[in-house]
């Protein structure tokens, strides 16, 4: 089994590739150049606290929303840059932040405000089926413009 070095240098990282036969030895590679893009994923906190969802299914909702928004907007320049990066390895340097909204009403209010931005930012709300329940909202990768920061700061906090 490979382990990460105790104090990696800022420009190098250790990675391992899992093959169908065995795990290879770690390779030292150059870190991808940062794009400055961040994906925000907003999850409903009440699903955990009020509706007694287990944490695993709630985490799956954020994965569903983030995968869906990347697929839905795969041709958007910021999504391409997020996935490809400056050097073709953007996926190795992806940045995400998971936020919480208190409930469904707040999630919908955030969506309304995103739609009304001067420069709207694309997003996807994941609706869990068959319950038809909105569970998470994922925004396309962005540089967190001031208008977006204001909306997120007003309605969300870091998921804890």
How many separate domains?
Answer: 1
CATH superfamily, by name, is Bit1
**What proportion of the residues form beta strands (DSSP E)?**
15-25%
Taking the sheet with the most strands, its summary is: 5 strands, mixed
Q: Reading side by side through the largest sheet, how are the strands ordered?
A: 5-6-3-4-7
The shape is globular
Question: What is the CA-CA span between the terminal residues?
Answer: 31 Å
Helix content: 25-40%
Runs in which pLDDT lies below 50 for 5 or more consecutive residues are 1-22
Radius of gyration: 18 Å
| SSE string, helices as H and strands as E | EEEHHHEHEEHE
- Average pLDDT: 86
- The name of the CATH architecture is 3-Layer(aba) Sandwich
> What structural class do the secondary elements suggest?
alpha+beta
EC number: 3.1.1.29
Catalytic activity: an N-acyl-L-alpha-aminoacyl-tRNA + H2O = an N-acyl-L-amino acid + a tRNA + H(+)
Protein name: peptidyl-tRNA hydrolase
GO molecular function, one term: peptidyl-tRNA hydrolase activity
